[in-house]
Amino acid sequence: MANKDEGLTVNDQTETPVIVFDHVSKSYVEGSDNHALVDVSFTIKKGEFVFIVGPSGSGKSTLIRLIENEIKPTSGKIYVAGRDLGKLKKSQVCKYRRSLGIVFQDFRLLPDRNVYENVAFAQEVVEAPKKKIPREVSTMLTLVGLSHKFKSFPNEMSGGEQQRVALARALVNNPMILLADEPTGNLDPQNSWEIMNLLEEVNKRGTTVVVVTHNHEIVDEMQKRVISVQEGMIIDDKKGGYGLV
Fold first, then answer.
1. Are 50 and 44 in contact (CB under 8 A)?
2. For residues 5 and 89, is the Cβ–Cβ distance under 8 A?
3. Cβ neighbourhood burial of 214 (10 Å; 0-12, 13-18, 19+)
4. The pTM of the whole model exceeds 0.85
5. How do residues 41-86 score in pLDDT, each as one tens digit?
């Protein structure tokens, strides 16, 4: 008989929508009418590639932080892989977050560890079998085209290379969901496209990809589903380009 914690394993959930926001509002000041999000509802299915776009302060990053369970909604419910995030116990939250792949604008690599060690760290955190770690790390570094740099340290690498290491780290535990918050924000156009091509490849392999970005060119070119956010509200949700002026 399965124990309750097994329900936290995102990879096991296949029948329900991956992400559901059900009339979610978020205010950072208790009792304030100034909401970061207002009555937001949407569903993301397994295997989708979704952009979340909008001007600065529109609520994009709040959406990602809510999915991560870094913050709680003021009202409404959020379900990830069939689990009500509002019902997770404190002891379950860390395990839940480890079941997601997360990529940030500023890479967040460990400066005192080389490429191999940075990616392996994600495996160590989830207590993966030690004999499996070298194989899994090698597979991910090959995927992102950095197997030849496994001994390099972050300060020896370009921004694009560091972001590819961060992507390998986010993917090494085989998450169902990959969250990318402005993943090309610190990159030049060529490196930005390399990262987006990798995200598309990851998506083709079955991972649900959610990308927060302000990069009009990339969104217009890739023609994926775009959720447009403005003043805390979803004002558009369709396949196509950036859509906001």
1. yes
2. no
3. middle
4. yes
5. 999 999 999 999 998 889 998 999 999 999 999 999 999 998 999 9
